[in-house]
Amino acid sequence: MLLLIFAVLAGWMADTVNNPAAAIVVNIDNDAPAEIFIQVGKRRSISRVRFRVDADDVGSGNPVNGNRSIDIQLFIRAPAANPLTGFLTVDSSTPLNNGSGATIPVSEISWTSSSPDIPSGSFAGTSSQQLASFTSSVEVSDRHTFSYKNRNVYDAGTYNGQVTYTWFAP
Amino acid sequence: MVRTLGRLLLLLVCLQALPSQAQRLSDALSPQQQINIKFDWKHQTAGDELDPKEFNAVVAHARNVDTRLDTSDFVDTQARIFLELPVQVRGLNNPQRLSVSWTTNGLFQNGEVTPGNRRLIFEGRITEPVMRDIFNFTFEMDARFLSEMLRLEPIYEIEIISP
Q1: What is the ipTM of this complex?
Q2: pLDDT for residue B18 is more than 50
Q3: Helices B2-17 and A2-15 sit at what angle, rounded to 10 degrees?
């Protein structure tokens, strides 16, 4: 009787170890490319900010806010096996000019950020001022409000200029 | 002595009455044994409306996977069949960051599973020695936890409900 019991138990236990190996194997490689993206202001256009300085306030040192804020969105993403670091720089090396030879350095303009991702600051008037760096994977959405410092007296007129943001991952 | 033997017999009867343990089904009859696919970003145009998980989501598809399970030992039994993923997946830092979903042509049920878990795909009487269905798999994970190529070996298990 004891032998019979053992045989039944052994048979019951044998069922639990009858495990043929899996046959189908799925290999998944990573083909997701590293990506960076930036959008400053409106998509596919140059966004303008205007500063209007009243004649009796020129050079007073009272900052003049721009007429609008600019949204900056950027992201960098890459698989964990190949992380990336991206750098945000701005070129403000070309002064604003009135078309008649008078210029105002872009360093007379500062900005306040809505988030600490891209800190508040002033344009340096250089060709490659680093504003921030981020390591993948990050999404950043920031809003910059610009201000003209209004510290000096310049010839009357309309001054135009352009700054260019560059977002790159070496 | 007689009372002891009686208890042993009763124990045996109880053990036999329990649902049988899961047994692995061979899928070696399936024509394609190696499936090589690639992850790509789930959202090609990322934006700030995506949460971090979706922003980093990658997907891969294995379509028309002809799956044939050897059920010859279980014909005319009432059974449940499960699809299981091992908890250890090579190339995956965090098992919970991978999900596998599938649709079928109807013999087996659609479903979704994560590593270390299993999902019921069939319940009923086994009538054929080979059960065949076409699976369309979708593999999705967070790329932040993808350290190298993933190697997955889905497991098919059967539990006998009644002979």
Answers
A1: 0.82
A2: no
A3: 20
